[in-house]
From TrEMBL:
Sorted UniProt keywords: Carbohydrate metabolism, Glycoprotein, Golgi apparatus, Membrane, Signal-anchor, Transferase, Transmembrane, Transmembrane helix
Matching Pfam families: Sulfotransfer_2 (PF03567)
Membrane topology: Single-pass type II membrane protein
Gene that encodes it: Chst11_1
Location, primary (coarse class): Golgi
Protein name: Carbohydrate sulfotransferase
One GO location term (cellular component): Golgi membrane
Lineage per the UniProt record: Eukaryota, Metazoa, Chordata, Craniata, Vertebrata
A GO molecular-function annotation: sulfotransferase activity
Highest taxon, organism lineage: Eukaryota
E.C. number: 2.8.2.-
Species the sequence originates in: Bucco capensis
Example GO biological process: carbohydrate biosynthetic process
Amino acid sequence: VMRRNPFGMDICCRKGSRSPLQELYNPTQLSNTAILHQIRRDQVTDTCRANSVSSRKRRVLTPNDLKHLVVDEDHEMIYCYVPKVACTNWKRVMMVLTGRGKYSDPMEIPANEAHVSSNLKTLNQYSIPEINHRLKNYMKFLFVREPFERLVSAYRNKFTQKYNTSFHKRYGTKIVRRQRKNATQEALRKGDDVKFEEFVAYLIDPHTQREEPFNEHWQTVYSLCHPCHIHYDLIGKYETLEEDSNYILQLAGVGSYLKFPTYAKSTRTTDEMTTEFFQNISSEHQTQLYEVYKLDFLMFNYSVPSYLKLE
């Protein structure tokens, strides 16, 4: 079975049992799901092509660019994790898949354990030939979410929770210092009362972009996972998290004994909540913020939110 790989060469899939990629690209029976994922892949390809002017200086990916790509050797899969898009549960699932029997129930793994980097192997830990081999032959997937909903989720989690003192110190103090006139000494010291408007002003400030890359919780998916350089076989969506996740597990051949953990979080950021957060943002700032996340909106087929007052 031949399939096109992202580098333009034809590669032959493994003989014998059907690999996840064969099942995905040449399904035994063409399902609506397979078609849906093809449409999502095409959308990414078209957006990359249409915007390639900006990325004409097609930079070569460095190992540092690959630190979000989690590798599962046993099932030949690569998962690019995006914070605030069910990444804790996906990391738990990857620990079950790569743990060789050490874990059986993803939800028994404590959340903080899932984020310990040594518990999962990432692609940047391999040699260049090994990286290329895996990018060429493994099934690669990521999960995306409506960009502004993800942003509000990150803000709520990192700046409104009292326990996130490291974020308050690292980013909060900087945001207050830069965005708040007549800030109190306490606010400058603690950085634990950042307003959403100040967070937005910080994100669109050109100084911020020049100073350092965005933190992964509000960095664009485009910059975290490099979908114009890496050909993802599956693009899962937060909106259809369960179906997409279980489809991936089924392709990996583990669907019979491993289901994606589902539980309704009552605190989850919703569209209504996001609308509310954007009420106080000026149309000028909304327009600038949309520009920052525009490629994520286009690439993953999210329409411009109806609540935006773009200039």
